[in-house]
């Protein structure tokens, strides 16, 4: 019983440290190796124990601990991009890159480098994407939300209107 209690306490402490690390890393973007971090933060992603960030029109960064076991983080550039928006699904990364096109990379977000092989994934132009239940949702340049199945996604596939209305700039989907 005592061991179970210690394991539970350690687990929750680990979660607290990860959350605090994320907040600290995002609160101190000026501690990066590049001047890009003076720009507007576009998106953050968490994959396993890694925190990633895209800054306006710039490269992809990962927060890394500067000393083991501490909450000190430094932003390290892992790919030049430029990336406008990212979404991940299993071992595949989707990115909005040049011309507001969706590109795909087969691999984890952590494995993205300057040499990563990106290929066009869909037809049409979007400014933000999110994934949910094997469906990609995208914010069109007209501000409407569109969707298409990941199974059918190809450079020839069309986006289907999911919802019209407001002038959306970005999209996020919370898993339940």
What do these coordinates show?
By secondary structure, this protein is of the alpha+beta class. The chain has 1 helix and 12 strands. A 4-stranded antiparallel β-sheet has the order 1-2-3-4. A 4-stranded antiparallel β-sheet has the order 5-6-7-8, with no helix packed on it. It has a 4-stranded antiparallel β-sheet with strand order 9-10-11-12, with no helix packed on it. The two termini are 31 Å apart. The relative contact order is 0.11.
Q: What level of helicity do the residues show?
A: 10-25%
- The best one-word shape is globular
How do the strands line up in the largest sheet? 1-2-3-4
N-to-C terminal Cα separation, in Å? 31 Å
Task: Write down the Rg.
Answer: 18 Å
Strand content: 35-45%
Major sheet summary line: 4 strands, antiparallel
Residue-averaged pLDDT, rounded? 78
Q: Which regions are unreliable across 5 or more consecutive residues at pLDDT < 50?
A: 11-18, 29-34
N-to-C order of helices and strands: HEEEEEEEEEEEE
- If helices are DSSP runs of H or I spanning 4 or more residues, what is the number of helices? 1
Structural class: alpha+beta
Number of E strands? 12
Report a brief summary of the structure.
The chain has 1 helix and 12 strands, in the order αββββββββββββ. It has 176 residues and is an alpha+beta fold.
List keywords for this structure.
176 residues; alpha+beta; four-stranded antiparallel sheet; 1 helix; 15% helix
List the topology elements:
Elements: H1 2-27, E1 41-47, E2 50-55, E3 60-65, E4 73-79, E5 85-89, E6 92-96, E7 102-106, E8 119-120, E9 126-132, E10 135-140, E11 145-149, E12 160-163
Antiparallel strand pairs: 1-2, 2-3, 3-4, 5-6, 6-7, 7-8, 9-10, 10-11, 11-12
